[in-house]
Specification:
This protein is α+β, with helices and mostly antiparallel strands and about 270 residues long. The protein contains ten helices and eight strands. It folds into two domains: about 150 residues, Jelly Rolls (Sandwich); about 110 residues, Orthogonal Bundle (Arc Repressor Mutant, subunit A), CATH 1.10.10.60. Helix content is about 45%, strand content about 20%. The radius of gyration is 20 Å and the shape is globular. The model has no long low-confidence stretch (mean pLDDT about 90).
Length: about 270
């Protein structure tokens, strides 16, 4: 698959937590239409209240949780974007657009237009492309009108977890043990493990491994560095070890991943 563009609507009447941190090689435009969600994004915990929109760039780990909600997401690979659209999504990354009800209704109307079409219909992909282009024009107007708000951790977030995540995000290329991390954030092992499990549903060292794999994926598709060099840059002891872990977690080698995904970033 050389390009990827998808519009997806989801409603849930119950409390729902995305079970795992994840990342992907494409932009996610997250449009919360109804409800409230907590959004873990990089090393930030942001509380969103509808209607609001934020842009998750490629290879940023994130997850959401909260009560009943409705959202519409747009997923798009960088190679689907023209220069104007790429600049717009880059400028909106790591920020929130708090929408008025009127503006939210306008965006929903565009995204839902001709939603009965399926990929088997003759003009489905042309309609999808046109719909996305119009949506981006509206988004550009909103950026000028509403002044995006930079994402910052909410006061209710857990300082210990955010401090540890921030440390790992800055030092993932170094050799880090659980003892090192606990010393860096001045806490005991069991306390840190408990807090990570409670709020991120993983251990601190599993978070570090996810982070290193995410950074390795990004370098695989955005650079021509060797596997050995990428291992060095992302905290793996060797190219062979990176390949072993990559196969275990992704079901394919780093070279296969690079071959299958690199075109997403070529225009």
């Amino acid at each position: 698959m050389d390009t990827f563009l998808k519009i997806e609507e989801l409603s849930n009447p119950n409390t729902m937590a995305m079970p795992k941190l994840h990342s992907h090689p494409y932009y996610e435009i997250y449009f919360l239409c109804e409800g409230k969600r907590s959004f873990f994004f990089n090393d930030t915990l942001q509380n969103l209240e509808a209607p609001a929109l934020l842009v998750v760039p490629p290879y940023i780990m994130h997850k959401t949780e909260g009560g009943a909600f409705r959202r519409v997401n747009v997923y798009v690979t960088p190679n689907c974007l023209n220069e104007y659209q790429q600049d717009l999504l880059s400028s909106l990354s790591l920020s929130v657009l708090k929408l008025t009800d009127d503006k939210a209704s306008e965006l929903i109307r565009v995204l839902r237009k001709d939603s009965a079409l399926t990929p088997s219909d003759e003009h489905y992909f042309s309609v999808l492309d046109a719909k996305f282009s119009y949506f981006m024009l509206l988004l550009s107007d909103l950026e000028r009108e509403l002044a995006p708000k930079e994402l910052k951790t909410e006061p209710g977030a857990v300082p210990l977890v955010m401090s540890a995540v921030n440390y790992l995000n800055r030092n993932y290329a170094e050799e880090i043990s659980l003892d090192d991390l606990c010393r860096a954030v001045f806490t005991a092992k069991q306390t840190l493990i408990y807090q990570f499990k409670k709020y991120l549903d993983c251990s601190p060292m599993k978070y570090l491994l996810k982070l290193r794999l995410t950074k390795a994926k990004e370098l695989l598709v955005t650079s021509d560095e060797s596997i050995e060099k990428i291992a060095e840059l992302t905290g793996f002891s060797s190219g062979n070890y990176l390949t072993l872990i990559f196969k275990q977690k992704e079901g394919k080698s780093p070279s296969q991943y690079r071959k299958e995904t690199k075109d997403f970033f070529l225009r």
